[in-house]
Amino acid sequence: MSGRRRLVAVVAASALAFTVTACGGSSAAEDAADGTSVTYLTSFGTFGRDSYVYVALEKGYFREAGLDVTVKPGTGTVDVMKLIGSGQADYGTGDLSGVITTMANEPIPVRAVAAIHQRSMAGIASLDKAIDSPEKLAGTTIADSSGSTNMIIFPAYATAAGIDPATVTFVPSSPQSLPQLLAAGSVDAIGQFAAGKPLLEKAAGGKSVTMLPYADKLPDLYGNGLLVSAAKLDSDREEVEKFTEALVKGLVYAVEHPEEAAQLLKKHDRTADETVAAAELTEMRPYVLGDGGSAGTLDRARMERMITLLAGTGTLKSTPSADDLGAYDITTP
Questions:
Q1: pLDDT digits (tens, 9 = 90+) for 75-87
Q2: What is d(CA 77, CA 94) in angstroms, rounded to the nearest whole number?
Q3: Among 201, 208, 225, which Cα is nearest to 287's?
Q4: CA–CA–CA angle 47, 51, 55 (5° rounding)
Q5: Which phi and psi (to 5°) does residue 46 adopt?
Q6: Predicted confidence (pLDDT) at residue 31 exceeds the cutoff of 80
Q7: Known InterPro entries for this protein (predicted)?
Q8: What is the SS3 assignment for the chain?
Q9: Which of 6, 2, 1 is nearest to 245 (CA)?
């Protein structure tokens, strides 16, 4: 069975039911010691939204694929791309808008082979419905990390929403400071991913967080994607197919079983808040499953539309081709 047909079968089975029992005795991670060793980087740190890789690890999906996977916290899309491109990591996750922007300005030999999020989770977060419609963004101050996906995409979102992006001021801030800046009222809003809503509400002492998801106005945007080096894709396509299948299986299970996934995350990061982690996965579920049955899939036509949209923001020094960015026959139904 080809990789893409295997993936479709895995997603269908995952969405219906899983009969694998909970972990007990020796872990799947321990049992994988005889497999091919590979390294995977999370998108950024260790949050509930990244716990699907630990599900794939602990449920034995990687072991079944003959892989011994070491998971390391990533530090953002560009760093993940550079580490994979230089051979210091085998796989990782990064925001596909960030991948396009980076490749346009600084070509790195990586390729996307799956979409973790069928819709972008990027957006604007405010407290207590202060900004509950795009029209209320005019004249506001928004904190976000310099060069973030939220900041890069914002002009396209603002244009699609019918507002002037020049009426909004972005304040460069460290990612770690964003929840506190919002909670303290130091800014009107912050750039944030939809899955980060539970963490923001915890930082704000239980105040409600209102999200303006970019996907509401820009439905063609993917969110995070699974990345691999161009060299590995060329030299070991079978491994790439097996890794992708196992990871997507863990992804679907995680969003269908958020509480259990949070528990598995806790095994690998004792500082994780299980309640927040489970809530993040619940928020992430519709972004992963899309319109149903499409988890993991990556489409060339949509990637081409993303490139065109981002080129229209004026942030790209060149326009990369879709084939320079991804492989579309690993996960396409």
A1: 989 999 999 999 9
A2: 4
A3: 225
A4: 165
A5: -130, 95
A6: no
A7: NMT1/THI5, SsuA/THI5
A8: CCHHHHHHHHHHHHHHCCCCCCCCCCCHHHHHHHCEEEEEECCEECCHHHCHHHHHHHCCHHHHCCEEEEEECEECHHHHHHHHHCCCCCEEEEEHHHHHHHHHHCCCCEEEEEECCCCCCEEEEEECCCCCCHHHHCCCEEEECCCCHHHHHHHHHHHHHCCCHHHCEEEECCHHHHHHHHHHCCCCEEEEEHHHHHHHHHHCCCCCEEEEEHHHCCCCCCCEEEEEEHHHHHHCHHHHHHHHHHHHHHHHHHHHCHHHHHHHHHHHCCCCCHHHHHHHHHHHHHHHHCCCCCCECCCHHHHHHHHHHHHCCCCCCCCCCHHHHECCCCCCC
A9: 6
Q: What is the pLDDT of residue 312?
A: 87
Burial class (CB in 10 A: 0-12, 13-18, 19+), 231: middle
Looking at every residue in the chain, the average pLDDT score rounds to 90
pLDDT of res. 9: 46
CB 248 within 8 A of CB 11: yes
pTM of the predicted structure, to 2 decimals = 0.88
Q: What is the pLDDT of residues 125-153, one digit of tens each?
A: 999 888 999 999 999 999 998 878 898 88
Highest mean pLDDT range out of 86-100, 139-153, 301-315? 86-100
Q: Would you state the pLDDT for residue 333?
A: 62
Is residue 118 pLDDT above 90, yes or no? yes
Task: Spell out the domains of the chain, with CATH numbers in brackets.
Answer: 3-119+221-325 (3.40.190.10), 122-216 (3.40.190.10)
| Residue in the block written with tokens 């991670």 | 29
Please, which residues have CB within 8 angstroms of residue 263's CB and are 6 or more apart in sequence? Answer: 274
Q: Which residues, at least 6 apart from 96, have a Cβ–Cβ distance to it below 8 Å?
A: 112, 115, 221, 222, 223, 224, 225, 303, 306, 325
